[in-house]
Design goal:
Length: about 300
C-alpha cells in the first residue's frame, strides 16, 4: 500500500498453497501467526496433535476468518482473542479463553462494518460466507452507510487515502495464480476501515526496524495509527424506527451468533455508539439502538456443471 505522499505500508496477506503440490513444510498447520488461525484449524491441531503426518487442509473459510482478524486489528489496535483453542482449556474442562469484545465497544465503528467483521469471525465456518458474498456486502455497506460513516474520529487534520500500487502493464508477470477473490474483499475492507480512522499523523519510524515477533508484521503499522480520545457523538435526530413485531425480509433467524440477540424472532446487533432517538437507520428497543443482521447464504443444492 502506498500513500499519496509516497509512504509505503507493508500488508502481509500470509502464505498460500497450490492444489495437488507436495507440502514443503512439516507439522499439522502451515506456517502462520496464531491469532489468525481459524477455530476449525486450532481444533484440528489439538485433535491430531499425536498425528504429525496428518496435515490440515485449509479452506477459503480460513482465509475469511484471517481477514476478519486483520479488520478487527486495524479497527481496534489490538488482536481479537485466539479462536477456540482446546489447548487453552484446563484438564478439569474449565474454559480459560478471553471473551472477545465486539470492535464497536472498543472504537466507534459504522454498524455495517462491525457486523461484517463479526460475521467473518463467526465460530461456524458456514456462517462467514464466501469472499464473493462478503465483497458484495462490503460494496453495499460502503454505498449505504451514509455521511456519518465518512466523518473522521478526530475533527482536526486531513485524512490520507490509501491506494494499491499496480505494476506497469509492460512489466512481465511470472505464472498465473488464478482469480484472487480475496483481494477485492480486502480492498473494500480497507476502504471502510480508513473511513473510520484518521491517518493524519500516520508515520513509520525508519529507526524502528526490529523484528515484529510472533504478532506478525501488521502489528508495527497498527501501533502507529492515531486512536481517538473520545468516541464520536451521534448526530441528533428526531426520527425513530420502532422495533418490528416480526423479522424483516432477509433477516437472520435464531439461533443468533454471539454478540447478537433474538428480538421478535430475528437476530439484531446493538449499536453501542448510538442512543435513542436512533434516526432513520437503526431501530429503537428498550432504550437502545439495534441494526438487523442479514441471513447467511444457503448452500447450493445442485452440483455445478
Amino acid at each position: 500500500m502506498v500513500s499519496p505522499e509516497e509512504k509505503a505500508f507493508l500488508m502481509d496477506f500470509g502464505c498460500g498453497t497450490w492444489a495437488g503440490a507436495p507440502p514443503l513444510t512439516e507439522g499439522l498447520l502451515a506456517p502462520g501467526t496464531k491469532p489468525y488461525r481459524s477455530p476449525e484449524a486450532l481444533r484440528f491441531q489439538w485433535e491430531h496433535r499425536r498425528e504429525p503426518h496428518a496435515p490440515y487442509r485449509a479452506t477459503p473459510e480460513d482465509d475469511v476468518y484471517a481477514l476478519g482478524v486483520t479488520a478487527y486489528h486495524l479497527c481496534t489496535g489490538i488482536y481479537s482473542p485466539p479462536a477456540t483453542d482446546p489447548s487453552l482449556v484446563g484438564d478439569d474442562a474449565r474454559e480459560t479463553l478471553e471473551v472477545m469484545k465486539p470492535p464497536g465497544q472498543l472504537k466507534p465503528l459504522a454498524p455495517s462494518l462491525e457486523s461484517l467483521i463479526l460475521r467473518m469471525l463467526s465460530e461456524n465456518s458456514q456462517d462467514r460466507g464466501s469472499a464473493g458474498e462478503l465483497a458484495a456486502a462490503l460494496e453495499t455497506a460502503a454505498a449505504t452507510a451514509g455521511p456519518a460513516a465518512d466523518k473522521p474520529l478526530r475533527p482536526s487534520g486531513s485524512r490520507m487515502s490509501a491506494q494499491v500500487r499496480k505494476p506497469p502493464a509492460s512489466e512481465p508477470r511470472g505464472g498465473c495464480l488464478g482469480p484472487m477473490v480475496l483481494m477485492p474483499l480486502a480492498a473494500w475492507l480497507i476502504i471502510l476501515i480508513l473511513g473510520n480512522l484518521n491517518l493524519t499523523d500516520l508515520t513509520v519510524s525508519s529507526t524502528s526496524m526490529d523484528d515484529a515477533g510472533t504478532a506478525g508484521v501488521a502489528g508495527a503499522a497498527v501501533e502507529e495509527l492515531p486512536m481517538p480520545s473520545t468516541a464520536r457523538e451521534p448526530e441528533p435526530s428526531g426520527l425513530a424506527l420502532e422495533m418490528p413485531k416480526a423479522p424483516l425480509p432477509g433477516q437472520r433467524r435464531p439461533p443468533c451468533p454471539r454478540f447478537q440477540i433474538n428480538i421478535h424472532g430475528g437476530c439484531w446487533l446493538e449499536v453501542t455508539q448510538a442512543s435513542p432517538p436512533c434516526g432513520e437507520h437503526y431501530y429503537d428497543w428498550k432504550g437502545a439502538c439495534y441494526s438487523p443482521t442479514s441471513a447467511p447464504p444457503r448452500p447450493s443444492t445442485s452440483d455445478k456443471p
